[in-house]
Amino acid sequence: MSNKYSFIKAFLALILVLPNFSFAGTVTMPTSLVADTSSFVTLSDSGTTPSISGYSGTLLVSVTASDGNIKVTTTTSLKRASGYCGYGSDSDDEPTDCTGNSLTEIGFRGTQDDINTALATLAFKGDGTAGSPTVTLSVTPAGSLYNTANGHYYKVVNHGGNITWTAAKTAAENSTLNGLSGYLASITSKQENDFIDAKAGVNAWLGGVDTGVEGCWKWSGGPDDGKIFTAGNDADNVSSGDCAVDTGYTVYERPGAGAAFGDGEFGWNFNEPNNSGNEDYLHIKTDGSWNDYRQTTAVRYYVIEYGGMPGETATTTGLTTLTIESVEASESTYNAFDDKQLKGIVEAHNESIKSSLTQSTDSVLRRMEQYRRFGNNQRLKIQDLKFVLNDRSSDEDIEKRLIEHYSKEIIGKINIKDYMASNIANLMDDNSENKYNDWVWWASGSINKGYLNFRSDQLGRLTDSNGFVIGTDIDYDNNSLLGFAFRNDEIANYVSTNGTKSTSRGRHLMMYHTLKINEQNFVDTFFGLGETNQHTNRAVDIANNTRVTGLNKASHAFGAFKYNFSNNFKVFNISNYSQFSFGYSEIDGYTETGSSNSKMSFDDRDLLSSSATIGMKIDRSFKLNNSDLLPHFKFDYNEDLTEDSVLKGSLVSSPSNQYSTTISKHFSSSLRIEAGFDWIFDNGWNVTSIFNRIEKDGFGHENAFNFSANRKF
Predict the structure, then answer these.
(1) pTM higher than 0.90 for the full model?
(2) Separation between Cα atoms, residue 308 and residue 325, nearest integer Å
(3) pLDDT tens-digit map of 87-110
(4) How many C-beta atoms surround the C-beta of residue 664 within 10 A?
(5) CB–CB of 549/592 below 8 Å?
(6) How many CB atoms within 10 Å of residue 554?
(7) Contact, 102 vs 124, CB < 8 A?
(8) What angle do CA 319, 322, 324 make, to 5 degrees?
(9) How distant is the alpha carbon of residue 201 from its chain centre?
(10) Which is the most buried residue in 37, 365, 509, 587, by most CB within 10 A?
């Protein structure tokens, strides 16, 4: 029992001596901010509000700007911190001076909730020159400090009474902070000296001594242990006897009593060190200059430094740095389209449009190929469309609903009057009448999946698409075909794996014609009109999942000419073909929406696309029980002739700064290999299945699966 109570007492004693502080928290900051910073811009305009979480106790938060100015506009319930916002000591008074317009560093003390209220108003103003300034936010226990220049932490310790240099060194080296070992501070730069002077402002021990050789001053402890910074008790000496100042450790002496140091200089006070009364220990004075002291001199403060020791890494999560793109600055090189998420989205727009037009063209040209293989245009009974669409409805009016849907959805969107859509639906409702017997109906569905490779200047993209086409045509003159088709498609482009996505939905009305010149020569022509709506979802701050969205529209006119030459070789039918496809798209301008000031407004533009294709198709027929099987194999080579298009845009928050990018095709040629079959059953059913793969000149690939089912009646 005694051991049990001893453990409990020890545990309670440990709790009592632990500080009232938890350092298992995190800092939330924007990862980027793009803005005109000629006046103060609130960091929360990025879409992410600066905040801290997981902390308890009294905290010290400091915010430092590498260039420009920083401030908060709310300081309610906060406390002043020594060395920040012009205050020379800690105080429970409100730090109202931290709202000033000319500060490069601010700091204050308070609880987590009070600090978050202030951080929500954190604002930055650029200096007009620096194009990519940074803002660093640090959270430490009250009483510790963080230096953004070297990544080290510091504590200015008040011993409460006089303390010797040796005792201060021992206390410092027994101290740890955030997993870092402490040591008496060693100052190696003017910035570090100014930082400690501003934050301490007291007489305090530093880590320098000359106890080994008089006048040969060395840093004792820490990562600079043994480095010599003064020789022969004279800062002007490079060496004295066997004592030589180490490279990078030069310090200076104030040129006269009360005089200022030269630019970039720091170190000893005037006529110091002087070894008056055997002074072997270094301390910093209230004015930031150095002096040598005896062990017994009355000094109550010492400065502990943490960081830089070999093998040590701070365990703190209370530190983060934000890079700001000051678009108005003279040194700014910012271009909005350098962002790979944005560049991926706008390139996906072009690829989606081209893909939609290509797939629409292929669906109709494939219908004309099928027509020539069968020798006539197979009919499709409208009620059998539910097989293609996987429609399980038992509604007897399925054919009427489908026709009304696609005629109104597609034809209506292209500004053909509603009554025409209704008339077409009525015309198709009863195709058993003799006057309509020459017109037949067909339908086809497709699924495409593709991948574009990663490159150094671009993110990779995954593409999923599907489409459904319904058409009607007539064999009007000895195997010459005339028809119309409607197509709906949806194409989703996933830019990288960060959630940036573009979804394109297209609707196209198409007219096609195949002309039989003779038994071996056919000419296919095709023309279409359509529109596409493209929905975008772009990640602008991946770490904080900040997004902007947009919707743009495009109208298209497109077509194709295809010449086919067919010949027989033994049991095989061989078709050679050449094709020219073209498209013209007017893409409307649009403006992104969202909470981030990285959202863009884009101008309208045109896209001219064209391609030339040559290829060969081989097929033959097999007679089976109650059916005929017609497998085929096809390969072709395509040359993309699409012209570059230029997209211009500006930040919504800064419309005067316009950016542009040239959208080029990423592959000039592609090779397509296709295999498939038509399976014709004696009961009237015809099933077609096709798989093809397109290799895009080493840049990526696309796989496509097409399926259709027709039934003669």
Answers:
(1) no
(2) 30
(3) 988 899 999 999 999 999 999 999
(4) 12
(5) yes
(6) 24
(7) no
(8) 165
(9) 44
(10) 37
